[in-house]
Amino acid sequence: MKSNRNDRTNQRIERISMQHAVVGIDIAKDAHAAQMTDFRGRSLTPRHLSFPNTLEGFEKFLRWVKEAQSKHRLTSLLIGLEPTGHYWFNLANWLLQQGIEVVLVNPVTTHRNKENRDNSPSKNDPKDALVIADVVSRGYYTDYVTQAAVFERLKTLMSDREYWVKQSTSLGNRIVRWIDLYFPEFRQVFPDWTVLRSLASLHACPMPCDLKRLSIDEVIDHWRKQGMRRASGVSGRAKAAALLAAATHSIGDTRATEEARQDIRRLLQTYEHVVAMLGEMDEAIQSILAEIPLAEQLRSICGLGNMTLAAILASAGDLRLYAHGRQLLRRAGLNLAECTSGKFKGQIKLSKRGDSTLRKHLYWGMLNLVRQNPDFKRWHAHNQAQGMKKQASLFKLIGKLARILIGMVQRGETYRSALAAPVAA
């Protein structure tokens, strides 16, 4: 499609002919509601159809569609649905397997058009289904395109990883809270509590009262029992002495020592299990990236890490399907939104209507690029020298990165500094 937004909307409208039956489906967890209209938005069914989220329900829905099409002599079919949660995936994929066109309607569009027919703010499933069919007939939809299996595998794995990263962060915060309550001086000895010697100490003798009756050699023996190979030495003995001194003058809570000891044991076991799982996931992600030719091509950008690359490909899918970098920015919600009316001109902001995970990783990836990549570092310095704020420069460079990524994929080229403009970002 053309890059102009109005042209694309017109093309989506022209795609729906007089022979089209347009079906809107309101998605729910257990039962969906469907309504059918013609290309002008006229309702073709006297009542809505409610069908369960099962194979029998899907077949019932398809029979209902075929009967209505036959009655009104319509030969083409376009089904629009609202991507609510995860409940729509099975239905959408099943319809694609039947060779039926499926399009998606933004829930915000449905909400803002629900008063068009009856001038009423009322909301129910049959009405929502009719509103969805209406907005599809006016071209306000996006095509649902399934990705290749390798991209779906990467997407599933990255989604799983995002969840467990949040869990590991939450567990880490709980452990820090525990240390602050029961052994606040511990952080003076081990500023980074995740190092091996610190974890061994928390496993073996987490409470100050556990350490007060130990000697330096006994502390080192406990570290060895926890699997440390180089537990002693000058630095090891110094750490043990500092830990014993901190325990002697600790102000930690001593009212529930046994319960606190069990608490930190459970927290550490869970945290280490999650960290081990994340390590396995990272290896699996590297293995999947090796199966994607685009990944090796995009790795030619110095400073673009593997996790950033995996997140981009998982969230955006096959970049060969994109015509311009603006499409990637819009998918991430990084397109600009302006509010003006008459003489009033509001502030231009990011729309933030898109994939928040993709937006996050593009931002983190840019932070790495302006530190490690000479070109992006130079462009960032140039933008700031022109009076641009740091954050504005970063987001401007994210737009440049999006155009570079899509351009590289379209041309089948690797990144070369000579291809970029000397200073302009």
Give a brief description:
With 425 residues, the chain is of the alpha+beta class.
Keywords for this structure?
425 residues, alpha+beta, Nucleotidyltransferase, domain 5, Helix Hairpins, 3 domains, 6-stranded mixed beta sheet, two-stranded antiparallel sheet, 18 helices, 9% strand
Which helices and strands, and how do they pair?
Blueprint: H1 5-14, E1 20-26, E2 31-37, E3 49-52, H2 55-72, E4 76-81, H3 89-97, E5 101-104, H4 107-112, H5 125-137, E6 142-143, H6 149-182, H7 186-189, H8 196-204, H9 208-212, H10 216-225, H11 233-248, H12 257-289, H13 293-298, H14 306-316, H15 325-331, E7 336-337, E8 340-341, E9 344-345, E10 349-350, H16 356-372, H17 374-385, H18 390-411
Parallel strand pairs: 1-4, 4-5
Antiparallel strand pairs: 1-2, 2-3, 5-6, 7-10, 8-9
- CATH H-level superfamily title of the largest domain: ATPase, nucleotide binding domain
Secondary-structure element sequence? HEEEHEHEHHEHHHHHHHHHHEEEEHHH
| Tally of individual helices | 18
Shape-level CATH architecture of the largest domain: 2-Layer Sandwich
Main sheet: which strands, in order across? 3-2-1-4-5-6
**Helix/strand-derived class?**
alpha+beta
Q: Helical content, roughly?
A: 55-70%
Q: What is the count of distinct domains?
A: 3
Largest sheet: 6 strands, mixed
What name does the CATH topology of the largest domain carry?
Nucleotidyltransferase, domain 5
Amino-to-carboxy terminus distance: 27 Å
Number of strands: 10
* Overall pLDDT: 91
